[in-house]
Each structure stands twice: as structure tokens, then as C-alpha cells.
Amino acid sequence: ALRQRAEWSGEIWNRRKSGEVYPQWQSIRAIHDEGGTISHYVAVFSDLSMIKRSQAELDYLAHYDPLTGLPNRLLFKERIQHALERARLEKGQGAVLLLDLD
């Protein structure tokens, strides 16, 4: 990608001095001299740790009750759809038992 377009961007995993592995967004650009040959590369890194944590928290809040920590209706529906699709593909059978505790 650097040879063809003279730039590349993507997510990479890096390691802090403490040994912790964390996600980064890296953008690299090739810098050309007056003759058109690549003289050097410039890279810019952005730490994605906070964004990844926020995404994980939003995903948790979308699928679990924040008060009890129990799976909610959306997660139940997704898992039932997945199980039914798997049973259909494997020509298997299944059953669902739903108890309304309200």
C-alpha cells in the first residue's frame, strides 16, 4: 500500500513500557524528494484504548441490564436467532422455554 498509494492507515497493537498491549491507529505517509524517490516516511499514532473501552461498555449496556447484570431481551433474541440458524444449517432440532417472572 505504501508503494502503490504512498500512504497506509490501520489499527495496530503496540506495547507500553509497562508491558501492557494496547490498540493504536497508525497513519504512515511516504515523503518524496525533488527527484520523486522516497526519502523517508512519517507516521502518526493515536491511542485507541479509551475508544475501545467505550465501545465495550456500550456493547455491555446494550445486551445486559445495568442494575442486575443479567442478559436482556436483545441479547436473548440474538442468541435465539443464532441457535435457530445453527439448528437449521445442521438440520437439527431445538426448543425454547420462556418463563415470564413479572
Number of continuous helical runs: 3
CATH architecture label of the largest domain: 2-Layer Sandwich
Largest sheet, in brief, is:
3 strands, antiparallel
Low-pLDDT ranges: none
CATH homologous superfamily grouping of the largest domain:
PAS domain
Tell me the overall shape: elongated
Mean pLDDT: 90
The CATH class of the largest domain is identified as Alpha Beta
Helix content: 25-40%
Draw up the topology in text.
Elements: H1 2-5, E1 7-15, E2 21-32, E3 38-47, H2 49-63, H3 73-89
Antiparallel strand pairs: 1-2, 2-3
Brief rundown of the structure:
The chain is an alpha+beta fold and 102 residues long. It is 35% helix and 30% strand.
Which properties best describe this structure?
102 residues, Beta-Lactamase, 2 domains, 3-stranded antiparallel β-sheet, 30% strand
How would you characterize the overall build of this protein?
It is built from 3 helices and 3 strands, in the order H-E-E-E-H-H. It is of the alpha+beta class and 102 residues long. It folds into 2 domains: 2-49, 2-Layer Sandwich (Beta-Lactamase), CATH 3.30.450.20; 52-89, no CATH class. The protein has a 3-stranded antiparallel sheet.
